[in-house]
Automatic annotation (TrEMBL):
Similarity comment text for this entry: Belongs to the peroxiredoxin family. AhpC/Prx1 subfamily.
UniProt-listed Pfam families: 1-cysPrx_C (PF10417), AhpC-TSA (PF00578)
Protein name as catalogued: Thioredoxin peroxidase
One Gene Ontology cellular component: cytosol
Alphabetical list of SUPFAM superfamilies matching this protein: Thioredoxin-like (SSF52833)
Species this chain originates from: Dysgonomonas alginatilytica
Domain of life: Bacteria
Domain Thioredoxin as annotated: residue spans: 3-177
Function field: Thiol-specific peroxidase that catalyzes the reduction of hydrogen peroxide and organic hydroperoxides to water and alcohols, respectively. Plays a role in cell protection against oxidative stress by detoxifying peroxides.
Main location group: cytoplasm
Annotated active site: 51 (cysteine sulfenic acid (-soh) intermediate)
UniProt GO BP: cell redox homeostasis; cellular response to stress; hydrogen peroxide catabolic process; response to oxidative stress
InterPro entries (UniProt xref): AhpC/TSA, Peroxiredoxin, Peroxiredoxin_AhpC-typ, Peroxiredoxin_C, Thioredoxin-like_sf, Thioredoxin_domain
Keywords: Cytoplasm, Disulfide bond, Oxidoreductase, Peroxidase, Redox-active center
Length: 211
């Protein structure tokens, strides 16, 4: 699997649904460079079971992300129309009505491939033609991208395993803490706790206070 941490997030320009009801062309994360952090996450498919719980959970915490200057963007290999239809479907009927952050359409599979979260694989038939083997869906990949467009955190779950929105917020807090104070964040660090100076004296001081 590709490790993108420390590298520029792969660029793309695709269709997306924004504000829960508007299909737009030429959506790109580059619009956020220099302005916002980005949580960019993939999910396998619209109209499934674990996926709506995740998308709704991110929407439920959207004010927390916005207060940290973070844009949340979802992605799957479904069409923009499929996204739009799912967004119009009430939550008590399996839909995600009320989700307002952008959801991109990766029908060409290129975005999922570039972020290395695409399940299945490519092979060749007897005629030398490229074919796709498996379900052309994305694993549950999540990427934290800083304001310079650099990936600072990534995690990829198998399809049955839902992610923690609280842990995602914790990692945003940790990144912003290190950027502001120049200190590092030890195990299980949470916002409001002390950081750790990256020296032997700092480590000793931290350990003496935490026990």
């Amino acid at each position: 699997m590709a490790v993108l941490v420390g590298k520029k997030a792969p660029v793309f320009n695709v269709s997306a649904v924004v504000n829960g009801n508007e299909i737009v062309e030429n959506f790109s994360l580059e619009q956020f460079i220099g302005k916002k952090y980005v949580i960019f996450f993939f999910y396998p498919a619209d109209f499934t079971f674990v996926c709506p719980t995740e998308l709704i959970a991110f929407q439920d915490q959207i004010a927390e992300f916005e207060s940290r200057n973070v844009a949340v963007v979802g992605a799957s290999t479904d069409s923009a129309f499929s996204h739009w239809k799912w967004l119009q479907t009430p939550q008590n009927q399996g839909g995600i009505q009320g989700v307002k952050y952008p959801i991109i359409s990766d029908q060409t599979l290129m975005v999922s491939k570039n972020y290395d979260v695409l399940a299945g694989d490519t092979d060749y038939n007897d005629f030398g033609e490229e074919i796709f083997v498996g379900a052309p869906q994305a694993y549950r990949g999540l990427f934290l991208i800083d304001k310079e467009g650099i990936v600072r955190h990534q995690v990829v779950n198998d399809m049955p395993l839902g992610r923690s929105v609280e842990e995602t917020l914790r990692l945003v807090d940790a990144l912003q803490f290190t950027e502001e104070f120049g200190e590092v964040c030890p195990a299980n660090w949470k916002k409001g706790k002390e950081g750790l100076k990256a020296t032997q004296e700092g480590i000793s001081d931290y350990l003496s206070h935490s026990h």
